[in-house]
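Justification of resources, computational component.

The compute hours requested in this renewal are based largely on the per-chain cost of generating structure records like the one below. Each record pairs the submitted sequence with a full structure-token output. That output is archived, and it is also reused by downstream analysis tasks.
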Amino acid sequence: MKDHRITVRLSPDMRRRLKAAARRGGTRESDVVRNAMEVHLAAEEGSLTAYDHAKKAGLIGAVKESIRDLSTNPNYFDGFGGS
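The structure output for this chain reads:
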């Protein structure tokens, strides 16, 4: 798979902090940025709701030829949740 390149604008302070982090870790600035993105995206994915996961997986709206307002129309709720 081919890598993609992006351009990011940094404030002078952010650039200084990035350079310092790369120096401390003995690595390149791009590695620090990639690692930070991995951590951020993993945390974001971990906080997704079940709906978000289903939407991301393409499951929302996947049932064809069904009642379009089944989950929102109160007329279909009769007897639902009763014991």
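Residues 12-76 form one domain. Helices lie at 12-25, 29-46, 50-56.
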